[in-house]
Structure formats: C-alpha cells, structure tokens
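lol so apparently i was supposed to do this last week
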Amino acid sequence: MFGLKRKSGVKKPEESSNESATLSDRLKRTRTGLFGGLFSRNKTVIDNATLEELEDRLLLADIGIKTTDQVIQLLKAESKKNSTENPLELLKQVLLPTLKLVEKALIIPDIPNKPYLILVVGVNGVGKTTTIGKLAKRLQGEGRSVMLAAGDTFRAAAIEQLQVWGDRNEIKVIAQTHGSDSGAVIFDALKSARSNNIDVLIADTAGRLHNKDHLMQEMKKIHRIGNKFDTDLQSEVLLVLDAGTGQNALIQAKQFNEMIGIDGIVLTKLDGTAKGGIVFSLADELNIPIRFIGVGEQVEDLMPFDAAEFIDALLAADT
Ligand SMILES: Nc1nc2c(ncn2[C@@H]2O[C@H](COP(=O)(O)OP(=O)(O)OP(=O)(O)O)[C@@H](O)[C@H]2O)c(=O)[nH]1
Ligand SMILES: [Mg+2]
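anyway here it is w/ magnesium ion bound
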C-alpha cells in the first residue's frame, strides 16, 4: 500500500486488515466471549444463572478476579433492588473507572535537549517492531521528526525488518551489523538524532536473547545508555505486550517493571484474541498507563487507548 518493493526474508504485513472495521469489529472475539448473547438491550432482570455464566466468562477473558468480583457484586446488588437499569449500562459504570486509571496518552514534550527517546521493550514476537513502524508514522503525522534505532542486533532479520518500516515512511534508521552491541547502536543513534535536531528517537530492542536473565541484564544496560548520553535526556520506556498471551502479559509487565521501570504499555493483537480482558487485569494490578492498543497489522492499526471507547466497543451489540 505504500508502493514499496518488498525485501526478501521479511514478512509483509497481511493485507487482511479491513480499514472500515470499527473497534468493536476488531474486538469481536473478546466482545462475544465476554458478553455475546448474555444480555439484551431491553432485558433488565439479571437472574442467577446469567450471573454465574458472566462470572465464568469474565475469568476466561482474563479480566482478573478483582474486576470480576466488582462486576458480579454490583450486578447482584442491583438485581436485589429490582433495578430497572439496563445491565449493560451497569457494566459500563463498573468497568469504566478501572480503565480510566490507565488512560494516559503519550505526550511528547517540547524540549530543548532533543531527541525524546522512546525505548521499546518486550519479549519476542509481541509486536515491538511493528508498533515502532506504526508509532513513527503517527508521530510524523503530528509534525514530529523521527529517527529509528535498530537496537535488536540479536535476531538476524530484525534490522532489515525495521529498515522496511523506515523506508516506507522515509525515516532514517540507524543500524549496525547483526551481533553488534545494542547499547552502542542506540548511543550512536542518540548522537545522530541530536546533531540532526530530530524530535523523537524510537529504539527497537531484542525480545529474545540466550535466556530471560540475559534479556533483563541487557535491558538494564540499554536503559542506562540514555543517561550516559545525557543525564537530562527525557525518555519513555514503552513495554509492548501481546494481549493474546493473557495472564503471561501481566507477568511480563511485572518483570520488566521491576527490572527497568516501565512508563507506558502498548497492548497489541487485540484484534485476534478472546483474551482482551487482560487490559482490566493490567489496569487493576499495575496502574501503568496504557498508551496505545494494536488492533491489526497495518500502519494505521495503532490507536491511543481510550477507556470509554474501549468499553463501548466491548459492550456493543452484534450487528
Ligand atoms: N493481528 C495483529 N498482529 C500484530 C499486531 N502487532 C503486531 N502484529 C504481528 O505480530 C507479529 C510479530 O510482530 P513484530 O513486530 O515482529 O514483533 P517483535 O516484538 O518485534 O518480535 P521480535 O523482534 O521477534 O522480538 C507480526 O506478524 C506482526 O504483523 C496487532 O496489533 N495485531
Ligand atoms: Mg522485532
């Protein structure tokens, strides 16, 4: 769609993404798994069987015990009151505050000591490189100048994959050869971005190293690079999580947060999973801002996280 030649060995994003699909369409698997066929718009009585079914479904969608309990308690209390309030409205009331807590957009400050560094971290395959491509395009659209750093020097095709995203958007990618020191690549890129007065440098990192400890040590090292470059450097550590991994995503978030401190989360692949309820667990347990959600493989499939929009999409009726 960008009229570019494909490079060999690099997977081309699938062309299945339907540009007119609404968020609710994209969240279909989570949405139908959670609420499909359970309530109707004009039904106000909630019986015990419905409540039990709902509880099972909330847990299956990885919404987490805390939010599940809140939902069930509220609906129970309402049903005792013989309330005439629509259950879907009640659900919205109880679900929205949890997600509102983590609805905090990524705002790039106007700073004299450019660039602003966005360090993108996460385990392998979660969608880091794809998210970088999408994010770079979005920031460009907002009038920012952007540069990319190919900090994943571990996986052979990673540099080329980032280069493809860079070529598409005419964004310079700073890279060294496969196997070189990732911190050195990012340091180099910071220098280049500063001398070219670039607003934002987005750095890719490896998701797979020899083992998990090695990955965490490497992340710690990389995390220090920004400080080494300039103690006043402003940055965001952005953790990418694959929604489809459910509770594993929560474990990863805790580990990365303990090791290097996470400023924001991008939750990807919400379009292909029934486990999108993980967003509630993340909000409940970590209270780390969710900056964006990934709802497809195309460049436009990265949306700022909007709590009300997300819940409305989950509660939308099937058309
Ligand atoms: N459906 C869907 N697929 C996505 C999304 N984000 C990323 N992907 C796909 O997930 C796969 C992995 O994405 P990458 O960006 O290569 O993931 P990564 O974290 O950089 O992986 P490593 O470099 O191996 O650590 C690719 O096929 C992407 O197209 C999303 O929001 N929805
Ligand atoms: Mg990658």
